[in-house]
Amino acid sequence: MRLMKKVAVILAGCGFLDGAEIHESVCTLLAIDRAGASYQVFAPDIPQLHVVDHTRQEPTGETRNVLVEAARIARGNANPLSALRMEAFDAVVLPGGYGAAKNLVDYAVHGAACSIDPEVERVLREAHAMRKPIGAICISPVIVARALGAQHHPLLTIGKDVGTAADLEKLGARHQEAEVDGIVVDEANRIVTTPAYMEAERIGQVYAGVTKLVERVLSMAG
Questions:
Q1: Catalytic residue among 14, 27, 114, 138
Q2: What is the spatial distance between Cα 189 and Cα 89, in angstroms, rounded to a whole number?
Q3: pTM to 2 decimals?
């Protein structure tokens, strides 16, 4: 009997301005479930860069923890990223949100000169070395480029954002434009990316692209 495929989903908190983009995160979890696979949410157990009041879109001065905030989306079932070992999973997917560019890498602050959270880098390199497929949504291809670009030059998409595409290439990746609900597949590196809210105006567009990404990632997982 074929075992259910297991996907690790890495979130950057909760809220598109300071954490994981909630629509992208929920669409990812729903697509995995609808495809007959299972998921486990992980997040770094670290303070997030800052907290934003989403009604005013301004920082509040509060302090919040990335793992604690990610658990809001996961209905409490979120584990520290330090506990993730890719041998226990068939694939890994990273939804986007500005928080992904603030908490998983510091791209939002330093651009192409960004650094990456050590646990995020470890997991992505572990997945790549084990030939486990990687899915990256919205701004998250920047994270993949930072972790793998210099050595493996992955083919990624950020949609049609010229400036971010140029930064991906500075990080060693190759960029390919994609429509809002499209995907770009790097067969050699086993990486799938989709623009989501880098291009989307509606949640339906996000779900269409994320569903394609999840289906392709799971097909790559064998």
A1: 138
A2: 17
A3: 0.97
